[in-house]
Specification:
Layout: H1 15-37, H2 43-50, H3 54-80, H4 82-100, H5 105-116, H6 120-132, H7 135-147, H8 155-167, H9 170-190, H10 206-229, H11 234-254, H12 264-267, H13 273-299, H14 309-338, H15 340-360, H16 365-381, H17 384-393, H18 402-426, H19 433-454
Helix pairs in contact: 1-6, 1-9, 3-4, 3-5, 3-10, 3-18, 4-5, 4-6, 4-9, 6-7, 6-17, 6-18, 7-14, 7-17, 8-14, 10-11, 10-18, 13-14, 13-18, 13-19, 14-15, 14-16, 15-16, 15-17, 15-19, 17-18
């Protein structure tokens, strides 16, 4: 059982420092998460303003950048420090947000790509917490960090609906820019740094970085193009070929360098590869439900409920996010006691049941409202809280930033997989459209549960890991 003893005596920071650190990390996470959560009520406005299919066109580069940045930049932070990379990526996010204010779809796509790289804020935040905190303190703070996945207590989705109806979707990006600038200031001032903090011996494997970026990018684009152009289409086959060649090259170089980027021998362990598969399947099933299927159903005037953005946010997005924020810290504390993997498995099983019930009652508006609010607990709190932490907790001693990078990249690949299968189904416009989408999501969830049973928890230590903030675990 993966378990952390409840002890806060070994925390390396005072209570005030912990509060300020968590505040800085929360704002850095918000700078990314608002880019994902606040656009859900604006799907129709984006497509009407930038053209049909613009929302999906913007989503692919967003998650592609996150996948590449996670496997490269989090590992790089092992060598140059977490704080430097965190500040730099939030600045990049702000630059991308400025581009998203444009009326040109190509510029917006570039902006979304730059914004997507800030996905690494999650991995960096958990690495920083694990290096500084222990026991119950770590568990509660993990819950707080994970709760940001659902936005700011649901208020962001509701506010996004109001802003979209009143001022258009660009007002959302203006707000995100303000949050990003605040995050830069807070991280610079309140995230502690040590000259030896999070530094690994050796040099960054940039050759391996190129190959892993091509591998992850190829998988992401194959899933994206295969979903709407056909799995045997020319672009999809080209991306598949790039993936295979890059993966082979990565395996060759991994055995020839002293400090490989990933360390494939670690990924072959049951402590690593099942976590990657589970992450992809959870993102490709459950998360696409709230991020795409439910908003589309709510606003669809023919097969759905025909609601506006504000009502969609108020009924379907805000309640689940509120539940997540209220319960995630308690879930994190529970995970410290009974095991992060155990809690995650329970959340997956419960979410399968909730999505299956949603498929049955998809024609009843208020039944769906109640079930999606419950989904905020079973999925967003009980699954995401331990899942967000496991990349760090299951990491190898030699390459502490490798598994968190791959695990976080799996979020983007999972979302891309979700859009690949859900996009054509939701866009079909038949009366059974959303029923089918919910049942498919439940089926993928069953596969996620099966792989979670293969995952072997890694024994953890009670105090913050060391030396010098390294995420290596001591037995």
């Amino acid at each position: 059982m993966s378990q952390l003893p409840e002890s806060a005596e070994t925390d390396s920071l005072s209570r005030r420092q912990i509060i300020l650190l968590v505040a800085a990390l929360v704002f850095s996470l918000m700078s990314f998460s608002l880019n994902a959560t606040m656009l859900a009520p604006a799907v129709r406005d984006i497509n009407q303003t930038l053209g049909p299919g613009a929302f999906v066109a913007m989503s692919t580069p967003f998650y592609l950048a996150g996948a590449i940045a996670n496997v490269v930049l989090i590992r790089w932070s092992d060598y140059i420090g977490r704080k430097r990379v965190l500040i730099g990526i939030v600045i990049v996010m702000c630059l991308g947000t400025v581009l998203c204010l444009s009326t040109s779809l190509p510029l917006v796509v570039v902006g979304r790509f730059l914004q997507g790289a800030s996905n690494i804020t999650y991995g960096l935040a958990f690495l920083i917490l694990r290096a500084r905190l222990s026991g119950a303190t770590f568990g509660v703070c993990c819950g707080v960090m994970a709760s940001i996945n659902g936005g700011v207590a649901g208020g962001d989705a509701f506010l996004a609906g109001i802003m979209t109806d009143a001022f258009g979707y660009r007002s959302i990006f203006a707000l995100i820019l303000v949050v990003g600038l605040i995050a830069v200031a807070f991280v610079w001032k309140w995230v502690p740094v040590d000259e030896s903090d999070s530094r690994s011996d050796g040099r960054m494997d940039w050759v391996g970085a190129v190959f892993i970026a091509l591998t992850v990018g190829g998988i992401t684009m194959f899933l994206s193009d295969g979903g709407h152009a056909g799995w045997t289409s020319t672009p999809a086959l080209v991306y598949l070929a790039v993936t295979v060649v890059a993966a082979i090259a990565l395996g060759v170089t991994d055995n020839r360098v002293e400090h490989p980027l990933i360390g494939l021998k670690h990924l072959r362990s049951r402590e690593a590869w099942p976590l990657i598969v589970v992450t992809i399947l959870v993102m490709g099933s459950f998360m696409v439900v709230l991020g795409f299927i439910v908003p589309s159903m709510s606003e669809d005037p023919d097969s759905g409920f025909g609601l506006n953005a504000t009502t969609t946010a108020l009924l379907f997005l805000t309640p689940g996010a509120v539940v997540q924020v209220l319960t995630s810290p308690f879930v994190g504390r529970l995970a410290v006691r009974v095991g992060f993997v155990t809690v995650m498995r329970a959340g997956i099983a419960a979410s399968i049941v909730v999505i299956a019930l949603t498929a049955v009652f998809a024609d009843h508006r208020y039944a769906v409202v109640a079930l999606i609010a419950l989904f905020g607990f079973t999925c967003h709190a009980v699954i995401l809280t331990p899942l967000s932490s496991l990349g760090v907790l299951q990491a190898s001693d030699e390459a502490p930033g490798a598994l968190p990078g791959i695990a976080n990249a799996s979020y983007g690949m999972g979302f891309t997989l979700g859009f690949a299968w859900a996009g054509p189904i939701v866009g079909s416009g038949t009366d059974s459209t959303f029923h089918h989408a919910f049942w498919i999501a439940a089926g993928i969830g069953v596969a996620a549960l099966a792989f979670s049973l293969i995952l072997r928890p890694k024994p953890l230590v009670s105090g913050p890991v060391s030396p010098a903030g390294s995420t290596a675990h001591r037995t």
